[in-house]
Amino acid sequence: MTSRRLGNWLGLAYALTVFAFIFLPVAVLVLYSFQGGRLPVPPFDGPSLKWYGQIFADRKLMSALANSLGVAAISSAVACVLGFLAALGLARQRIPGAALMRSVIIAPLTVSYLIIGLGLLASLNASGFRPSLLSVGIGHAVINTPLCFAIIYSQTGAHQINFERAARDLGATELRVLWHVSAPVLAPAILASYFLSVTFSWDEFIIAFLLSRFEVTLPVEIWSLLRSGLNPKTNAIGSIVFLSSVLLVFALELLVFRKRGNP
Amino acid sequence: MTAELSIVDVGRDFGGQAVLRDVTLKVAAGSYAVLLGPSGCGKTTLLLILGGFLDPTRGRVLIGGRDVTGMAPARRPTTTVFQDYALFPHMSILENVGFGQRMRGLSRRERDAKSLEFLDLVGLAGSERKKPHELSGGQRQRVALARALAVNPDVLLLDEPLGALDLNLRRLMQDELKSIQRRIGTTFVHVTHDQEEAMAIADEIIVMDKGTVMDSGHPDKVYLRPRNQFTAAFMGEANFLNGRMTETGSRVQVETEFGSLELPSEAFIGGDREAEVQLFFRPESIRLGMAPAGALALGDAIVEDSAFLGTHRRCLFRLNDSESTLIKAWFRQGESVSAGQSLPIWIGIDSILCY
Amino acid sequence: MSGGAWTRERILALGFVLPALAWTLVFFVAPFGFMVAMSLWRRAGAELVRDWSLVNYLGFLARPHFVEGLLNSIEIAAIVTAASVALAYPLAWFIAARVPAGWQRIALALAIVPFWTSYVVRSYAWTLVLSNKGVVNEWLTSAGLISEPLQLSSTRFATVTGFVHFFVMLSTLTIFANLKQLSPNYARAAADLGAGGFQTFRLVVLPLTLPGIMVGGFLSFALCLGDYITPQILGGNNELVLPQIIMLQLGRRADFPMASALSIILMLTVTLAYLACARWLKLERA
Ligand SMILES: Nc1ncnc2c1ncn2[C@@H]1O[C@H](COP(=O)(O)OP(=O)(O)OP(=O)(O)O)[C@@H](O)[C@H]1O
Ligand SMILES: [Mg+2]
Fold first, then answer.
1. Contact state of C128 with A153 under an 8 Å Cβ cutoff
2. Which of B58, B139, B194, C53 has its CA 20 to 30 A from that of C95?
3. Out of B52, B89, B151, whose CB is closest to C193?
4. What is the value of ipTM here, to two decimals?
């Protein structure tokens, strides 16, 4: 029993070390966002909120923030609707060629974002369209549709089909089956996939970088900030993004998933 | 290889909640014991303690007279057949059965020979190259049995081994388990919540409820003379009637709403004689017709329901002057009793127990 | 409902699938096909010449720094994958087996908190940590272990560190999920039959958690191969990886055909990795 005790302590020490590694950059990022001086490196001479003041005064950064939110919200909604319908269609019936359709819909997941962005950029150029926030949104919906599909599809099953049969049996039209039965039954999966794609889109850099020109999203704007080297302003915006994401996840956990008693 | 098993005052808490309380029992070497109880009564917990997977909060476990409390599972002379079988899915049947031998350092040749012998014992010769997922539920259960027996344990622990099988297969496996146990002589401790299964295989039944032992003994004793009302009701269908006891000298008289009767002293279970008692009798001891002298006549009763169950006919009687009590009765297949009839029924005093 | 009959229900189901299918065909399959075609064309001066040839692929083989870029990519991805899985496994095991059940979710949520920093910012944060004046050099200097700051940023070490940081979190999740869905009876059965702690792990637990390892490992490898940001921010320009070379083709030279050819080479590499571990990676329905 003592060797087991020793093992427990070693395990705990190990876990804490890995946790320290995982938290180190985030801690440094947040700490030095309160730096007083011009460089976010030791010694710490804060706390000061001046860099936070600067980012809120930075019009470009703020509009990039708004762009990011808009692109994430809208492209995720598109991805979610497409993914949900496809998942239902493929779960309900054995359509000839279903396996192929599934593979096509899933395919973008297997290709790196760089390549998806490149393909879209080349096609955009060739067809004479200009890169814009719209093309960024399309790109994000392309990468997130398979994600939403996979999540929602994984939650459909025999019971799903039976719910729908029961509703139809009781006289519901297809639209009402969709609205009153299918969507509510899959609501946790739909919500989860929506918020996952929001975070993916919100955080996505390479497609947004390739497919945008004058109006950019936040990661692209942060990227251009990086050219000025180490800068507490970057720390400040990074910390804000981090803290707001954590709050969002926490709130979701409490509001949506906890209530449904999910594991 | 076999050994006596004794459990002394064992208790186990989970988060301050006592799941097992003062469990004390003895299982003779070479016997087939069945732990029987409703879901959640602590059977699996007790078995995990016997196997060494869980330490008891209080008490001791002895195997063959040796205290094994706190001893690691590997070093105990026990092996377990798990509820979900826990066959290693990435190993063949042969590798699964040979696993214990492999851990004991036997060469592949030796352990393969031994594994084949045990696969033969459980009737699975020829399947040794398959993987667990290629077998049916009943076959997996045999593999789990062979794997546990292949290390020659003194005590074999089985957690609801037949729970996942259909009724016919379950009956078949009951017979086989019993015959295998007779052949190798190992002490078996088998957990189930099915009282028919328990009676079919056990030398000794241990009835549990809410973490304590309610009764134990040979199946006919537990069925015919259960130690308490819980056991009486759990071991099969049971009828209860309220009664009032009066004791005058050496004669014990019980008053019921159907008149008073004199019961022999062995009808009183438990010893302490209270004024309010419950009369207990099994449905198969109900008789039709006029009561002979000394028997308890229940009067004319209305047949509420009568169903043919194959081996017998099961009827529900509503007693005349009672609103709520329904009496369950079993009759021979050929007896013609139909719903709506009013019939006199009675019960012999030697079939009545008193709590 | 027999074989291939087009019942009303089936047509309706097909109608549900069509939007996503059309979307993917128009905005993914078609552009991808266009890129494949492009990789077989070539650029002459500022012009795109649409004659079909393998000139870009041959050009790739002929240019040592391109090939070296691919090898760097593979090497880094392999190191990152191995290190991430090796670091993540004990952590996932500790959380699954030693942390009390009620705390496991919290421990896991904590282990992936930095997921929620933006990807670009996360790499930037590592440059803060690893720069010449950063906290690591500061600690080492004040502990008297070094007198001159170590060159940690703009090295392969920095790239690998940044990647491992991200993929440890990912692999912890996949391995934890795998460990949790194993019945505790497997380990019990092994112990019961005489296996020691290490034998139980090697013969039973490890093989049964191979799917979790493979999923985490493959995702790490694939995402690592295709990533531009982390090597660009952390690795500097001393040692280029393939995505950086692809971006260079686009930026300075606007050589789309070459960029396309390199992308396809990148994709083929991922596909090979996928085939190597395909049997552990399945999309399953609940
Ligand atoms: N690890 C645990 N933590 C907390 N409570 C537990 C734990 N294991 C068992 N219990 C509780 O102990 C009680 C007995 O559980 P046990 O599994 O022994 O029942 P059982 O008799 O085997 O039931 P079943 O027939 O359903 O298998 C249950 O109420 C259960 O909730
Ligand atoms: Mg149980």
1. no
2. B58
3. B151
4. 0.85
